[in-house]
Amino acid sequence: MTELPSKGASVTVQATAMEEAKRMVDLITRPEVELTQEEAKAISLETTKNFANHINKGFLEYRKSVTEAGGYAVTEWSGQGSILKDTMGREFIDILGGFGIYCPGIRHPRIVESVKGQLDRTPQYSQEMLDPLRAHLSKLLAMLTPGDIQYGFFANSGTEAVEGAMKLAKFYTGKKGFISMLKGFHGKTLGSLSLMGKSIFRKPLLPLLEGVHHTPFGDANALEQTLASARAVGDEIAAVIIEPIQGEAGAIVPPDEFLPRLREICNHYEVLLIADEVQTGMGRTGTIFGMDHWNVTPDIMCLGKALGGGVVPISAFCPLRKSGSAWNRIPLCTPQRPAATPLPAQQLWPTFRSCWKKTFLPSQRKKENTSSINWPGSKAGIPMCFLRLGEKACSSAWNFPPMK
Fold first, then answer.
1. Can you tell me the distance from the alpha carbon of 402 to that of 166, in angstroms, rounded to the nearest whole number?
2. Does residue 274 contact residue 169 with C-beta atoms inside 8 Å?
3. What value, to the nearest 5°, has the Cα angle with vertex 18 and ends 16 and 24?
4. Domain-by-domain residue ranges, the chain?
5. Do 183 and 217 contact (CB within 8 A), yes or no?
6. pLDDT mean values, one per 10 residues, the chain (404 residues)
7. Radius of gyration (Cα) for the chain, nearest Å?
8. What pTM was computed for the model?
9. Domain 110-372, what fold?
10. Which residues are catalytic?
């Protein structure tokens, strides 16, 4: 580990930075079995120090991968299927799934193969020529999503998808207000944070965007009253945004009548319904999308996390034909980059295939199954996100087989 020289000596700093970069490239391109114990320990200690000095030392104070890992922090180095391995060679069962990104498993072979194949052609687009993968991916999402959803606009993260949905809702309706749910989670960028239903995230950054109201999750009467009150005072609402099942709040499933009635209320008050499926989409609740449990079609659907197959980050917001066509008037305002590149688009085909294999077909989905939804660790009080494997545990038993 190299100590940083004074920034006054710019030439020395640049040379040191180049050596640091070369050293890390050499480590990650070397076969894993060639990593020595001394190097493994050094990486663990260096990573801890770099987090403290260059990211946020607060992470080190609450992550059990640091506080309960003994002399060397759990420093993630490789993974496959449901197994993560740190630099010291310790293996852990992943029951967190990267907050939802690893729905197909870690490094699913077909997804990795697809991304590597695209790297051999082009990893980025010119932004001038028409890109076939993005166009075909939009078509595929239109085929999979419920109802008359027709368009797909891409970004990198779930919070960007929510921001795009908010922007489109305001542009299409000409209104500025939103209603979201108490305890709801929609991301941490400015617009998404304004929708957040938790003070711990909002309070340090107040004031946020104006015109945002919050109602209790699962209470259709309270939501309708909020809309009625807003209309009475001339406070125009563009959209209601909701997670079909609240994730950050603890995997909270709403009453069966809530979402169908919410759809009716939004229609009556002429406001859009945005479904934030970043946590629930891509088969994470037993159907391809969380809204499918109640056969409700939103006006805009937000996707992320599992959409990327655990390999390259990608998110999307997908509107109905009527609202999505609003972008046609000003195409340059349509989100185009940087997520609209071949790599994240290319991985979606095997990701969708994995999702189809793990969920019911539309004709087989059973609404009554929603009451048994339970995400690992959400309510069970599991103290750590990973379980240490015993010495004789067979890690291959936890790996997903290649898709045929």
1. 38
2. yes
3. 105
4. 110-372
5. yes
6. 59 88 91 90 91 88 75 87 92 89 88 85 80 86 92 92 95 95 96 96 94 97 98 96 95 96 98 97 90 96 91 91 77 57 62 57 38 34 30 32 36
7. 23
8. 0.82
9. Aspartate Aminotransferase; domain 2 (3.40.640)
10. 185, 276, 305
